[in-house]
């Protein structure tokens, strides 16, 4: 019978194109708004680190009073180069990622290919172990390189394709700014959203295309293109002044294989903090450190703000208004077909069959409204993307991409909404005494 | 076939109670062709709606094929309507956006027949009313008489034992009306019980028995014999 109801529903929709289009538009507006807000919320609240094999922890150091800059859970978001370097060189207790963002002019050995401006990450080899970008060819640099430095680079497949078209990238040379590096690995394009491992600038900007050893920082004097924060005025005349300053510009992440490893690292950190406090570097008498899970880190950094939750609720209320409007339209439409329903009842249709016939019809209207809502949401997000990404100088924002799950959510929300809207009209029409309309036709 | 004992039907509003049927008694035997006559507002249509299980009754007993119709669920009532009763209405009540074929198909759909059986029954019903060639037409493309013949085909496609007709010729000219009456007589001759409401005394005379209703009660019965005028009058 469902196919019969489906056929009747399509005929009914065709018979009343204007009112059907109105209902689809009303549902599309409600679903479009809800899907847009829900998509943004899901992009915001998604934690890509949940799928990693090791739990990464963002490390914060509370070296100075929170009142002098500690708005991220009581501490600053980043560390100084001195502290990060010290932690990186204490290598026995789990994986350590020490890193910052930089920008490079990337030049291919093929002079016919134009230089490109690329975002890069200056990091340790544990970045690849912890955050798990997928290698296509080659590998990451050795531990030795983390300690002694070497001009090697891992690049993404997009960059490899554009710098070495039709060629194997591993083994090729690449000039980054003025230094020549050797490509030792190629990874798939890597841009987790939100970019939890570095939430400076934007949680939703593009990932980096090139990765070079952190140990090269003082040698190649690689500049930071992320945020640099300080809690006291300092005179910086040279790169050496910069890396020996109390400026905070390095992100540090840790991961542990066992509780004992974490305890060992804790002992080392407490010792280091005491040592630095006694040396007069850490003015905070209660200096401490924090290890934040990725989830806590996203929360502390305000990636999911309360406003986004409120917006989802407002959009849901808007959907309710659209549903109420649709109920009115459906009542009108169904009552108009009451004589035919009276005839069907006389010919043997039960109340349930009439109810189901109308629920199928509203489901189809809902499905169409859901698809139209998806198109609407895509257009709104695309418009937002143009406005926001041009303002931020990036090609596009993941935040404004329609979350994949919306392709399932939108029709589901629309069908549930339309069925909710159709319950009362369908109930009213199926409960009407058939004799009432048999003489009217 | 049909037995009503002391049927009451009361329509209530906040202010008024209207007794549409009062202690209404009627028995229709299997194979009979009975006409119901009476002035406007006498309760003819109410009787027909109750007989067709389209309206509940307020009191009394109603037996159809020996089964008590009181207390049946909506599903059970729909099943009885679908399987045992055929309806013909004054306004034809064809569904305007369904073709002739699809209109006749409606009761068969609710009966759960497979496509092949539906097709066989529809073709047979349309052949019976002489409209096989019009199967794909929409009701609006047919004359009033043709529409009523489609309605008859629809009522008969389910092969009901009992046909209820509410002024089936009321919207037709005399020629068409005669054709429809001929058709109903044929159907009755093949064994289908018919109860028909009409205003027309000439049509009433073509039935085997006329029941006259006044103020919701049977006023009198008239027994007819084919080719003769009234032969018997019973006061109710």
Give the secondary structure arrangement, pairings included.
The complex is a heterodimer of chains A (441) and B (236).
Chain A: H1 2-15, H2 17-45, E1 57-62, E2 79-80, H3 81-89, E3 95-107, E4 116-123, H4 126-131, E5 135-138, H5 143-148, E6 152-156, H6 157-163, E7 173-176, E8 179-187, E9 210-213, H7 217-221, H8 239-243, E10 248-255, H9 259-278, E11 288-293, H10 294-300, H11 306-336, H12 338-346, H13 351-392, H14 406-431, H15 435-438
Parallel strand pairs in A: 4-9, 6-8
Antiparallel strand pairs in A: 1-10, 1-11, 2-10, 3-4, 3-7, 3-10, 5-8, 6-9, 7-8
Chain B: E1 2-12, E2 17-28, E3 33-37, H1 44-51, E4 59-64, E5 67-68, H2 74-84, E6 85-88, H3 100-111, H4 115-128, H5 144-157, E7 162-166, H6 174-189, E8 193-197, H7 201-205, E9 209-214, E10 217-223, E11 232-235
Helix pairs in contact in B: 3-4, 3-5, 4-5, 5-6
Structural notes for this entry:
The complex is a heterodimer of chains A (441) and B (236). With 441 residues, chain A is an alpha+beta fold. Chain A has 2 domains: 2-48 and 305-438, no CATH class; 64-286, no CATH class. Chain A has helices at 2-15, 17-45, 81-89, 126-131, 143-148, 157-163, 217-221, 239-243, 259-278, 294-300, 306-336, 338-346, 351-392, 406-431, 435-438, and strands spanning 57-62, 79-80, 95-107, 116-123, 135-138, 152-156, 173-176, 179-187, 210-213, 248-255, 288-293. Chain B is α/β, with parallel strands linked by helices and 236 residues long. Chain B has a single domain (2-235), classed as Rossmann fold. Helices cover 34% and strands 28% of the residues of chain B. Chain B is built from 7 helices and 11 strands. Chain B has a 7-stranded mixed β-sheet with strand order 6-7-8-3-9-10-11, sandwiched between helices. In chain B, strand 7, helix 6 (174-189) and strand 8 (193-197) form a beta-alpha-beta unit. Chain B is globular and about 50 Å long. The two termini of chain B are 20 Å apart. Mean pLDDT of chain B is 87; it is low at 231-236. Chain A binds chain B through residues 1, 4, 11-12, 15, 339-340, 342-353, 433-435, 438-441, and chain B through 45, 49, 52, 54-55, 74-75, 78-79, 81-83, 87, 89-98, 106-107, 109-112, 154, 158, 166.
């Amino acid at each position: 019978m469902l196919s019969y109801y489906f056929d009747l529903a399509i005929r009914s929709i065709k018979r009343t194109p204007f009112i059907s289009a109105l209902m689809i538009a009303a549902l599309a507006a409600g679903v479009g708004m809800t899907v847009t807000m829900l998509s943004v919320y899901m992009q915001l609240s998604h934690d890509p680190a949940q799928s990693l094999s090791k739990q990464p922890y963002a490390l914060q150091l509370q070296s100075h009073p929170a009142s002098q800059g500690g708005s991220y859970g009581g501490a600053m978001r980043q560390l100084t180069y001195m502290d990060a370097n010290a932690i990186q060189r204490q290598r026995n207790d789990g994986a350590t990622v020490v890193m910052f963002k930089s920008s490079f002019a990337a030049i291919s050995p093929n002079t016919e290919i134009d230089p490109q401006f690329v975002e890069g990450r200056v990091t340790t080899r544990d970045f690849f172990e912890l955050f798990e970008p997928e290698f296509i060819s080659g590998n990451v640099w050795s531990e030795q390189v983390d300690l002694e430095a070497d001009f090697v680079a891992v690049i993404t497949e997009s960059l490899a394709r554009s710098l070495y078209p039709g060629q194997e990238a591993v083994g090729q040379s690449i000039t980054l700014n003025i230094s020549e590096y050797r490509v030792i690995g190629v990874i798939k394009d890597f841009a987790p959203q939100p970019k939890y491992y570095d939430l400076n600038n934007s949680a939703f900007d593009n990932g980096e295309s090139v990765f070079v050893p952190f140990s090269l920082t003082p040698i190649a004097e690689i500049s930071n293109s992320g945020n640099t924060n300080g809690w006291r005025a300092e005179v910086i005349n040279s790169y050496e002044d910069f890396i020996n300053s109390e400026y905070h510009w390095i992100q540090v992440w840790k991961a542990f294989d066992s509780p004992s490893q974490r305890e060992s690292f804790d002992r080392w950190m407490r010792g280091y903090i005491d040592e630095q406090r006694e040396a007069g570097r850490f003015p905070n008498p209660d200096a401490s450190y924090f290890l934040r899970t990725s989830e806590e880190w996203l929360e502390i950094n305000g990636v999911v703000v309360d406003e986004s939750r409120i917006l989802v609720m407002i959009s849901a209320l808007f959907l309710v208004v659209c549903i109420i409007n649709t109920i009115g339209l459906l009542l009108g439409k169904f009552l108009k077909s009451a004589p035919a329903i009276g005839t069907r009842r006389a010919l043997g249709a039960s109340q349930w069959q009439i109810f189901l016939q109308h629920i199928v019809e509203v489901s189809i209207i809902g499905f169409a409204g859901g698809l139209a809502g998806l198109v609407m949401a895509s257009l709104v997000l695309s418009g937002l993307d143009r406005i926001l990404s041009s303002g931020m100088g990036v090609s596009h924002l993941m935040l404004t991409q329609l979350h994949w799950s919306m392709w399932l959510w939108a029709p589901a929300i629309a069908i549930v909404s339309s069925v909710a809207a159709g319950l009362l009209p369908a109930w009213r029409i199926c409960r009407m005494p058939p004799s009432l309309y048999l003489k009217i036709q | 076939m049909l037995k009503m004992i002391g049927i009451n039907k009361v329509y209530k509003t906040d202010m008024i109670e209207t007794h549409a049927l009062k202690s209404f008694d009627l028995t229709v035997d299997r194979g009979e062709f009975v006409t119901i006559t009476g002035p406007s507002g006498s309760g003819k249509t109410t009787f027909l709606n109750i007989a067709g299980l389209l309206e509940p009754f307020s009191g009394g007993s109603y037996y159809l094929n020996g089964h008590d119709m009181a207390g049946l669920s909506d599903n059970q009532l729909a099943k009885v309507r679908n399987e045992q009763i055929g309806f013909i209405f004054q306004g034809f009540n064809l569904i305007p956006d369904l073709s002739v074929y699809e209109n006749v198909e409606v009761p068969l759909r609710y009966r759960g027949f497979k496509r092949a059986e539906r097709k066989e029954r529809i073709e047979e019903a349309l052949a019976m009313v002489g409209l096989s060639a019009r199967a794909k037409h929409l009701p609006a493309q047919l004359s009033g008489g043709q529409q009523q013949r489609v309605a008859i085909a629809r009522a008969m496609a389910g092969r009901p034992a009992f046909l209820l007709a509410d002024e089936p010729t009321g919207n037709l000219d005399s020629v068409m009306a005669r054709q429809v009456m001929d058709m109903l007589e044929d159907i009755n001759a093949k064994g289908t019980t018919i109860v028909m409401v009409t205003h027309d005394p000439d049509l009433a005379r073509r039935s085997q028995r006329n029941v006259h209703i006044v103020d919701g009660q049977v006023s009198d019965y008239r027994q007819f014999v084919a080719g003769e005028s009234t032969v018997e009058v019973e006061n109710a």
